[in-house]
Amino acid sequence: MGQSSSARTSVKDAYTWETTADEVLRDYGQYCRDKHIIVTGANCGLGLETVRALASKGAEVILCTRSLKNGEEALATIR
Question: Residue 74: how many CB atoms within 10 A of its CB?
Answer without folding.
Answer: 21
